[in-house]
């Protein structure tokens, strides 16, 4: 194997797609049995930036379009028009779309394959994979650590991963409580989300309501 990509999220699938496109024998190792599940994203992306990536999603992936924000602080609120249009994506569908594109370019996708170890072996790398209670090793030339923001794989390889993480919680609720088209809501201030903010994001018939906190005294769920 030339390239082992750990993680079948957008970073992993897009990296695998590019590697396979260039002719590298590529495998995506995803620990979950289904791509995009469980979802942990509100799905907000800048339409223009998404276009630049070249991964234009099919229309069924786009749940809403947003061009203004209603921001709340304490009992005050103000509406801000956004300079650019934002799309609300169905992340599980978007992730599946990218993984499929990677497969179409020749990458192999292995679901239910959790990487539990990586070590250097001369000029190669040995990737230890846990599948259905059994482990096996895969020898490859390159490992792409696309296992998310807190990448354990990068740490295993001695790479420096240092950034402050916010604790988040999000629910998908139906019906969508936002009545105005093109609007998403954010809530600022320690009352709602210390060190972060809360959001209500329209997603078609439903909405994603969540918040992220940093250095808060209590867990995100408390707020
Ligand atoms: C509540 C919440 C809301 C968010 N809202 C937004 C938003 O609106 N807009 C936005 O742009 N970003 C948002 N984000 C951030 C966004 O979700 C991430 O930036 C994005 O998912 C990162 O993509 P990724 O491919 O790097 O990692 P991920 O999407 O996290 O994918 C990593 C993949 O690796 C797999 N994996 C992990 N460890 C292993 C392992 N050892 N072996 C095999 N597979 C493994 C995981 O199962 C997962 O599929 C939000 C995040 C949260 C938590």
Describe this structure in words.
- With 223 residues, this protein is α/β, with parallel strands linked by helices.
- The chain folds into two domains: 3-40 and 92-156, FAD/NAD(P)-binding domain; 44-89 and 164-222, D-Amino Acid Oxidase, subunit A, domain 2 (D-Amino Acid Oxidase, Chain A, domain 2, 2-Layer Sandwich).
- It is 17% helix and 43% strand.
- The strands form three sheets. The protein has a seven-stranded mixed sheet with strand order 3-5-4-12-13-14-11. A four-stranded parallel sheet has the order 6-2-1-10.
- A hairpin with an 8-residue loop joins strand 12 (183-188) and strand 13.
- The longest helix is centred in the middle third of the chain and has 14 residues, at 91-104.
- It is globular, with a radius of gyration of 20 Å.
- Bound molecules: flavin-adenine dinucleotide (FAD).
